[in-house]
Amino acid sequence: HLQLVESGGGSVQAGGSLRLSCVASGHIKRRYCMGWFRQAPGKRREGVAVLNTNGREIYSDSVKGRFSISRDNANNVLYLQMNNLKPEDTAVYYCAADPPPCSGSFFTSKYIYWGQGTQVTVS
Question: Residue 2 forms beta bridges with which residues?
Fold first, then answer.
């Protein structure tokens, strides 16, 4: 099993930046595809950024050029750097892990480990 804990959320003004972190712990012996997802009130959970086991980064069109996903394998931490934030980025952000074999996708059903979420509010 894998435990994921997000942090770094908060309230910022439009144009500001935040960096989310996701610490993984537990039985980590395999490389997972890791993703950041978000869910706004009344909306479906959507993929934001994914990092597959080959290091390929995939971004949704809504965040491309503004967000950046990265990982620190030595410390089992996944990051999401969010720049030029917009009010429409307001949501609860979740990190998730898709066990191998994985290619990296935005299909939430492929991710079996999820964090508890961290709130991001942009005004």
Answer: 26
Q: Which two tokens stand for residue 10?
A: 């908060």
> DSSP character for 45?
-
Task: Please give the distance of CA 13 from its chain centroid, rounded to a whole number.
Answer: 20
Q: Where is average pLDDT lowest: 58-62, 75-79, 91-95?
A: 75-79
Q: Is there a contact between 79 and 72 (Cβ–Cβ < 8 Å)?
A: yes
Instruction: Report which residue type is found at 39.
Output: Q
Q: Which residues contact 89 (CB under 8 A, 6 or more apart)?
A: 38, 63, 82, 120, 122
pLDDT digits (tens, 9 = 90+) for 17-51: 999 999 998 766 668 899 999 999 999 999 999 99
